[in-house]
Model the fold of this input.
Amino acid sequence: MAGRAPVATVMTRLAKAIDGLDEPAVEKIAKEQQEDAFQVLIATMLSAQTKDAVTAAASSRLFRVARTPRTMARLTHAQIERSIYPVSFYRNKAVHVKETCRQLVARFGGRVPSTMEELLTLPGVGRKTANLVLILAHRSQENICVDTHVHRISNRLGWIRTRTPEETEHALYRVAPRRWWPVINLYLVTWGQNVCRPVYPLCPQCVLADVCPKIGVTKVGKLVKPA
Ligand code: SF4
Done:
């Protein structure tokens, strides 16, 4: 099948299909912490290129030691590293976390800013992190958060044809109706972790199989049933 899977059909089906599947770590942290902007920001920074279980455990260890920008800024790099190990690039992330906390205190009165422009001035904060903080903590309806899952699946569905997550974000603003923007990340990341995996996606079991053009998919996987 060529063409493009209808966005509304995909999103409506995924809304039901993800029910009961494990949510991405940062979404869980946001819900558990009543959308605490600081914890969403730090957990998202830790989550880059790191498995969800590792992000969740590292975030909770770090928040046990410090829960505010002021207290976290006082930690040494070594203390932060010890709390967040083994997230990927934990040394760099420790430097960024400490400096971000320092700047939150010095420039923003200890609060997490609520604009893309201000968020992007913080060290280690890119568009993905900024968009997720705006959506989950500041309840923005105006942003789409694109990570590798959203980038990959949007292209497989034929919604867009892009080479980078940043191109994908801008293309999605044009093709996806606004009502879906805040949940595109939650739906596609959850689907990407469970069904539309990077390699060997589970197309035969996918609720989108009849509408998805499966662009770029060459080999599909089989669901391993428990013995
Ligand atoms: S798993 Fe297959 S059918 Fe489902 S969205 Fe991904 S590429 Fe499309």
User: Anything to note?
Assistant: The chain has a mean pLDDT of 95.
